[in-house]
Structure formats: C-alpha cells, structure tokens
Design goal:
369 residues; mainly alpha; Cytochrome Bc1 Complex, Chain D, domain 2; 2 domains; two-stranded antiparallel ribbon; 2 strands; binds heme C
C-alpha cells in the first residue's frame, strides 16, 4: 500500500524521460589517457598532488594551482575572474572546477588544450597566472623533487620542455584521482534501474528533472557528466574585459598549433602501436577550426556540483543559478558575433519552474561515500 501511495503522489517520468534519465548516471571510471603513460601510476599521482599544491611552481613562489582551484570550493575560487599575479590584472575568464578533468576531451572554456597534462603546462607559463618558464620548472624539480621524480620518470631530462610536460603528466595523474562524487541523483537513477520506488528526490526535484529533460537542457548537458564535451554560442551577454572573447574560434586554432598537443613530440603512446592500431588523436585530426558555429562558442560545462561553483558562465557574469535560469528563460540580446545556437528558444519559465530546475541541479551535489 505504501508503495502505491508513493507512486500516485510522485510526478511520474514518462518512458522517454526515464530512458533519458538512465543515460545521465552513474559516472563511469575515467576513460584511459591516450597520451600519458603514467596517468594511472599512484606514485605519479602523489607527485602530481604535491606539485598541484606547491606555490614554488610559480615564478614568485606565491601561487599554486590550488590558489585558484581551492579544494574547499570544489576546486574553484568563488570569484568572477581569476586574480592576477601580484597587483597585476587578472584573467578574463571564470575558474572552472578540475574535479571532472579526467573525463574532459577539451580543456579551458575555449578548448585550447586537448589533454589534462598539456592543459597544466598553460597556467605555469601564463604571465598573469604562475609566470614561470620551462627552465624555471626544471630547476625547481631538480631542487625539490628528485627523490619522488626518479621512480616515475627516471633521471630529470635535459630538455626543459620534456620536464614541463612530465610535470603536467604527474598533475593529470593526480586529477584522475578526483571525481565529482556520487550524488542523490545517482541513487534515484539506480532505483529507477532496479524498479525500486525511490525516495531519493523530492517532488520539487523530480519536477525539475522533468523540466531539465523536456526543456532541452539535455541537448547539451548530457551524459553522466552533464556535458556533450562540445562548444556552443548560447549568447551569454559578454561583460567587457579585454574586449570580445571569441571562444572556440580562437581555441580551435590554438590547440592545433600547441606543441604539447596529442600529435606533438611530448605525447606518450601507451596504447597498442604498429599495424592495425587505430590512428592516434582522432578529435584533433578531424578538428575544423573554421567551423562557422565556433565564434563566441564556449565549452558546455559539467553541471555536477554546480551549486557550489558560483558565479557562472565563462565570464562569471551570472551570480546565481536562478540568474542562469532567467537567462535561458529570456535569452536577452543578440551575440556580438556569430549567432546564437539555433536550437535555443526562450523557455519562458515561471518562477516556480525555475526554482524546480535549480532544486534538481542541487541533486547533482556529490555526497560523501
Ligand atoms: C590564476 C588562477 C589560476 C591558476 C594559478 C591556475 N588556474 Fe587552472 N584555470 C584558471 C582559469 C581562469 C581557467 C579557465 C581559463 C580559460 O578557459 O581560458 C582554468 C582552467 C583550468 C582547467 C580546465 C578545466 C576545464 O574543464 O576546461 C584545468 C584542468 C586547470 N585549470 C588546472 C590547473 C592546474 C593543474 C594549475 C597549476 C599548474 C592551474 N590550473 C593553475 C585559473 C587558474
Ligand atoms: C545549446 C546547448 C545548451 C543548452 C540547450 C543548455 N546549455 Fe547550459 N550551457 C551551455 C554552454 C555552452 C554553457 C557555457 C556558456 C558560456 O560560458 O558562455 C552553459 C552554461 C550553463 C550553466 C553554467 C555552469 C557553470 O559552471 O558556469 C548552467 C548552470 C547551465 N548551463 C544550465 C543549463 C540548463 C538548466 C539548461 C536548460 C534550461 C541549459 N543549460 C541548456 C550549453 C547549453
């Protein structure tokens, strides 16, 4: 009787909604790293963790990766833009989490890196982030890391770029130990899968889930990480800081030219080689940098733990999740270049609908196992 009562009062998912919900969970283990031979080596992960938290990796010794990617804030900094070095100007983009780094295909809002290890070589050398050089990094490894380094990579290489890439590979190995964590939503889907009447979500959250599916959010925020790993111009009104941000249109060119990319000399090939082996780097080889939809397109962010990572969007211009839902409701303005994704239409959600979707997003918060 209790089960019948619960069924009658719970907003029921249609068969189509159920089928879609099943594709959103659980989060699988990280896919293999195609270009990092030490990706799953625990000694490399321990070394990478030390490097991630080491301020001496920056030129002035004042800033580590964790200064901007704070574990207490789900590896973000809570600011609209990343702070600059010293009193210098900060960046023009919002700090994304690194909890889901292991599952990404492209890195940065514009996808200008194609692996987690090559991504890590960016901020180390960025003048407004850590402002170091490959030679400076090699000196620091020699001064502080020879003991944990040698069992992972052998003797410290002469070529500073090799050492820089290896620092990135150790950091990637550490990032692969992170995860957004199982969430209440995963319990709900597990119950759905076994046909158990679920108490994991409230009615409000279930209504939000249905709206999330039926309003087309899943067209882009799909799969267990709630991202299609692609780029879209959704027409976020860009706030002026350093001029127009062209997003993927520039990122696609940059990743092709990056010496640390998948096709470059620093990429390992841990997978099968020789005749019959698949050609490496399909995503990079088939990337069309003049695709007409790239101007002002940004990477679809994962929505796991999204309630903890305000403010939102590539430019941190939306302070709350309700502001994001207002944006999708109204789609104000027209993009300054390119065109807004044609599938997007103003959703005209009521305040109650918006609150339901926001409460659903809260069910993606990781819970301690
Ligand atoms: C000054 C602040 C700052 C520092 C220091 C910093 N980052 Fe970031 N990080 C950012 C910002 C801002 C972005 C987004 C930049 C962009 O898209 O252009 C970013 C992006 C990333 C991403 C991409 C996530 C994704 O989903 O695309 C990863 C991974 C990452 N950082 C890891 C690191 C590592 C590893 C270090 C240290 C070697 C580091 N960061 C140092 C601010 C910082
Ligand atoms: C056409 C693809 C697409 C659709 C449909 C879509 N999104 Fe997005 N979403 C994106 C992209 C791309 C961004 C980042 C845009 C930027 O920063 O300029 C984003 C950003 C977000 C963010 C900010 C996350 C963060 O960490 O900054 C949230 C929250 C979000 N979307 C929720 C939703 C919801 C809820 C819906 C349905 C009402 C939806 N999205 C529909 C592509 C889409």
């Amino acid at each position: 009787m209790v089960a019948l009562w619960a069924t009658a009062c719970t907003p029921q998912l249609t068969p189509r909604e159920q089928a879609l919900a099943l594709t959103l969970s659980p989060v699988p283990g990280p896919p293999p790293s195609a270009t990092n031979a030490v990706a799953d080596n625990p000694a490399a992960a321990a070394l990478g963790k030390a490097l991630f938290f080491d301020p001496a990796l920056s030129a002035d010794g004042a800033r580590s990766c964790a200064s901007c990617h704070d574990p207490a804030k789900h590896f973000t900094d809570g600011q609209q833009f990343a702070a600059g070095v010293g009193a210098g100007p900060g960046g023009s983009r919002n700090v994304p989490s690194v909890e889901s780094a292991a599952w990404q295909t492209w890195y940065f809002w514009d996808g200008r890196a194609d692996s987690a290890w090559s991504q890590a070589t960016g901020p180390i050398r960025n003048p407004i982030e850590m402002n170091n050089t490959a030679a400076g990094v090699r000196d620091h490894v020699l001064a502080a890391y020879v003991a944990p380094w040698t069992p992972v990579f052998g003797p410290v290489a002469d070529d500073p770029d090799v050492v820089l890439a290896q620092v990135g590979k150790a950091i990637e190995s550490f990032e692969r130990t992170l995860s957004p964590g199982p969430a209440r939503f995963d319990q709900y889907v597990a119950d759905l899968r076994t046909g158990t009447v679920s108490t994991a979500l409230t009615e409000e959250e279930l209504r939000g889930l249905r709206l999330f599916i039926d309003s087309g959010c899943v067209n882009c925020h799909n799969g267990p990480l709630f991202t299609d790993h692609s780029f879209h111009n959704i027409g976020v009104p860009q706030v002026a800081r350093g001029g127009l941000d062209a997003g993927r249109a520039i990122g696609a060119v940059q990743v092709q030219r990056d010496p640390f990319n998948c096709l470059g000399a620093f990429a390992d090939r841990p997978g099968p080689a020789g005749e019959g082996a698949p050609e490496p780097c399909p995503e990079l080889r088939f990337l069309d940098n003049s695709f007409p939809d790239w101007p002002l397109a940004f990477k679809t962010p994962s929505l796991r733990n999204v309630t903890h990572t305000a403010p939102y969007m590539h430019d941190g211009s939306m302070a709350t999740l309700d502001a994001v839902l207002m944006f999708y409701s109204e789609l104000p303005g027209t993009p300054l270049a390119g065109h807004r994704e044609l599938t997007l239409q103003p959703l005209r959600l009521s305040a109650a609908d918006r609150a339901d979707v926001v409460s659903f997003l809260g069910t993606l918060d990781g819970i301690s196992p």
